[in-house]
Design brief:
elongated, 121 residues, 7-stranded mixed sheet, mainly beta, 11 strands, 4-stranded antiparallel sheet
């Protein structure tokens, strides 16, 4: 089994910053990629940012220059630093991890429980 624990969401004013964290633990052989998705009310879940095991990153256009994804391989943790937040960034943010499991050596992806980010004055 693999567990993902997210933290760092909350309420922030426009222009403010938040940092999300997601720690993966359990039956992990190796991590292929980690990412953050978000889902706003009435909208589909979308990829915000992703990072591969070798450090390659990608971002959705709306957050480029404002958000930074990073990872700590030793801790199996991914971070999302969000600066210059806008009301349209309001959503539930979900961590996703693509990994190879120990023992079974099956490749699966797992989701965090989600953390609410609200940008409002």
């Amino acid at each position: 089994q693999v567990q993902l624990v997210e933290s760092g969401g909350g309420l922030v004013q426009p222009g403010g910053s938040l940092r999300l964290s997601c720690a993966a633990s359990g039956s992990i052989f190796s991590i292929v990629a980690m990412g953050w998705y978000r889902q706003a009310p009435g909208k589909q879940r979308e990829l915000v940012a992703g990072i591969t095991s070798n450090g390659n990153t990608n971002y959705t256009d709306s957050v480029k220059g404002r958000f930074t994804i990073s990872r700590d391989g030793a801790k199996n943790t991914v971070y999302l630093q969000m600066n210059s937040l806008k009301p349209e960034d309001t959503a539930v943010y979900y961590c996703n991890v693509d990994l190879w499991q120990q023992r079974t050596l099956l490749r699966n992806d797992y989701w965090g429980q989600g953390t609410q980010v609200t940008v409002s004055s």
